[in-house]
Amino acid sequence: MLSVQQALDAVLNETRSLAAVSVALAESLGLVTAEDVVSDVDSPPFDKALMDGFAVRAADLAPGEVRLAIVEVILAGQLPSKPVTAGSATRIMTGAAIPNGADAVVKIEDARIEADGKSVVLRTNPIEAGRNIMRQGASLKRGAAVLPAGRLLRPQELGALAEVGKPRLLVRPRPTVAILATGDELVAIDANPGPGQIRNSNETMLAAQVAQAGGVAVPLGIARDNRSDLRAKIEAGLASNVLLLSGGVSEGTHDLVPAELAALGVRNIFHKINMRPGKPLWFGAWNRPGNEATTIYVFGLPGNPVSSLICFELFVKSCLRRLRGLEPSAPRILSGRLAIDHVARGERPTYNPARVSWDGSGLCVEPVRWHGSSDLQATVDANAMAVFTSGDTMYPAGQSVDVILWDGWPQGWESRP
Ligand code: AMP
Ligand code: MG
Predict the structure, then answer these.
(1) How many CB atoms lie within 10 A of CB 87?
(2) Which DSSP string do the residues of 319-379 spell out, in sequence order?
């Protein structure tokens, strides 16, 4: 049986990023760049004023008051038509180009314009050349790298790309992820379960995890535990980049998923992992005959909801990150300290739902009360999983443990000073 690390390595070794596509910049939020972008302009494109005030020659300023003749007024978007010579100044607005001859801007608060509007009295101590001016290309030179490939596009990246004239760019598309729940006991979530039946909660949860991981969920409904229904629906699922099956991968007499995947030519890469929950996880890859270049990744997730949730967080999310071009793809393992004594039981390494908070100096980890892989309710109070090695072990409060956050920041982080 593979360890979690071996299984993660196997998933990532198999997974290749999706081919790049061109999208409009305005549609690219949350996607990942697939090209190195360089600037087509200097930023700023000219020496520009950072303040409303007067463009002057720094050498003209003296302690106390200095009277200078006003040459002209330039607004942002206008070009100066006259140079600033000794004894003169140009009224300038923030963002406007600095006139020739000027090498500093005195802010308007330090200026008094005379009643005739022809001269200005500046009250300022001498200032150095360059004050309140941003030089052409100071932020970015034409031809310089703006963003490398592999960057997640957030609002500020979109703004930076807009500035350098990149209305379209190459990105990795969002992976499509088919979700197929299997089980004779399942009913739709809007149905009242009859005797022995339960609602198909995994489809909704997995679709939400897919969306949160930057994929596009394609829910396929429920496949019954018989070969023909399974086969038809698995075939439909192989039209997506990734197929997630829920249930049917354990040792039950009607756990038919591995056999049906094999019959359809899906290569098994591993089945079963040394972990709790999630031991029955199945992973494989499929190429449509005649199209060896495009691989479909198939996960057979255990049906128990917490197993499904945790296997997604560890393995499916990593696969989706790699498909999207996001590195590092593997989950980020953080270190925290136990807030309470914890007794770990079981022969396999355990990923225990936990509540992680920021205590002002580090991460504080509180494993939640949890009845095992079908106890989804316990995860509602959790925001992470804490990792405990195998064997019956007592972990005292204060002991350091590995944790993997499910999403966002730990509670209390926002209030960090
Ligand atoms: P299985 O992996 O098919 O043996 O299922 C393991 C457990 O998970 C059983 O108790 C199933 O009823 C439950 N289960 C399977 N599929 C789902 C699902 N889609 N939603 C919620 N529970 C499920
Ligand atoms: Mg089942």
Answers:
(1) 13
(2) HHHHHHT-SS-SPPPEEEEESS-EEE-SSS-EEEEEEEEE-SSSEEEEEPP---TT-GGGG
CA 353 to each of CA 110, 234, 316: distance values in angstroms, whole numbers, following the listed order? 61, 31, 18
Q: Is 200 in the pocket of ligand 1 (CB under 6 A)?
A: yes
pLDDT tens per residue, range 368-409: 999 999 999 999 999 999 999 888 999 999 999 999 999 777
Tokens 């549609």, residue located: 27
The pLDDT of residue 414: 61
**Ligand 2 mean position to 254 CA, how many Å?**
7
C-beta of 247 in contact with ligand 1 (< 6 A): yes
What spatial distance separates the first Cα and last Cα of the chain, rounded to whole Å? 45
Which SS3 state, helix, strand or coil, does residue 384 take?
A: strand
Label residue 133 by pLDDT band (50, 70, 90). very high
Q: What is the pLDDT of residues 31-60, one digit of tens each?
A: 999 999 999 999 999 999 999 999 999 999
22, β-bridge pairs: 170
C-alpha span between 48 and 41 (Å, rounded): 14
Specify whether the CB–CB gap between 172 and 325 falls below 8 A: yes
Would the CB of 198 count as within 6 Å of ligand 1?
Answer: yes
Residue 192 and residue 199: Cα distance in Å, rounded? Answer: 8
Tell me if 331 CB under 6 Å of ligand 1: no
What is the distance between the alpha carbons of residues 3 and 253, in angstroms, rounded to a whole number? 26
Closest CA to 216 of 18, 24, 10: 18
Round to whole Å and give the CA distance between 99 and 276: 70
CA–CA distance, 222 with 185 (Å, rounded to integer): 10
The DSSP H or E segment spanning 100 is: none
Atom of ligand 1 nearest to the CA of 249: 2
Mean pLDDT of 207-229: 98
pLDDT given at position 346: 83
Q: What is the dihedral of CA 161, 167, 169, 172, to 10 degrees?
A: 90
> What is the average pLDDT score of the chain?
95
